[in-house]
Amino acid sequence: MFSNRLYSPLRYPGGKAPFAPFIAKIMETNGVTGGHYLEPYAGGAGVALDLLFHGHASHIHINDADPAVYAFWVAVTKHSTELLDLLESTPITIEEWFRWRTILREDCVASLVEKGFATLFMNRTNRSGILKAGVIGGKSQNGNYKLDARFKKDVVASRIREIARRQSDISVYREDSLRLLNRCSDFLPKQSLIYLDPHTTLRERGCIEITTSMMTTRPLPKSFNRRSSNGLGLFLMTTRKKFVPCIA
To answer: Domain for residue 144, yes or no?
Structure first.
């Protein structure tokens, strides 16, 4: 059960967005359709946006510890008009690439919206959407593809507008994922789904072992994948401060 629907303005090749229909089915099976959805490693937030736009989730919580990604999501949800103005007025040239790379690197003073746009610009003009990768076509722009090959302004602008219309249904965080998971019971309602993508930095930094008692932090528990349904890292909040693996 996969999807070709794309709602994120950011490029995340190999991202989780195609699995949104499967996760929507998980929400239905577990009786949390229309509830809240939390993703501690949101990135492009493709799954979260798909669930929101199709009514599977009424509110999405997206978190990314990367300040560049966080700045982008705040710009989209809180300052979309300014972000769209930058999108419209900025030419897609190698000179602009150097300019926005400087801002992304924080080598100069910039507003939050400018930092968010720098993230978008570099994501759309760099190879594979990687912020620290080289520019598509090379700095001499003599490759088979130029830096604007993945930057269709009309498509990106349309996606930003759609997200901005739902800004009241989107919460954005920039927190250490483990700290956020330890406090998420303070803001999530009972009808919630949490997606702990087990293939991300959980394995590198340690992870949360979520049990039917309060959440506790333990380093790299071997039981993590076995505790989550099919190793997907999908958990339900059943009562305040209690979490259990989903039924797949």
So the answer is: yes
Q: What pTM was estimated for this model as a whole?
A: 0.84
| pLDDT band, residue 126 (cuts 50/70/90) | very high
161 in the same domain as 83: yes
pLDDT digits (tens, 9 = 90+) for 133-160: 999 999 999 989 999 999 999 999 999 9
Contacts of 129 (CB under 8 A, 6+ apart): 10, 11, 12, 13, 123, 150
**Tokens 């008009």 sit on residue:** 81
Domain boundary residue among 124, 140, 165? 165
Cα–Cα distances in angstroms (integers) from residue 177 to residues 37, 110, 197, in the given order: 15, 26, 11
Residue tagged 């997206």 (tokens): 62
How many whole angstroms separate alpha carbon 185 and alpha carbon 128?
35
Strand pairing partners for 235?
194, 245
Give the largest CA-CA distance in the chain. 59
Q: Clarify whether residues 158 and 179 are in a common domain.
A: no
CA–CA separation, 1 vs 192, rounded Å?
22
Task: Write the burial class of residue 167 (CB in 10 Å: 0-12 exposed, 13-18 middle, 19+ buried).
Answer: middle
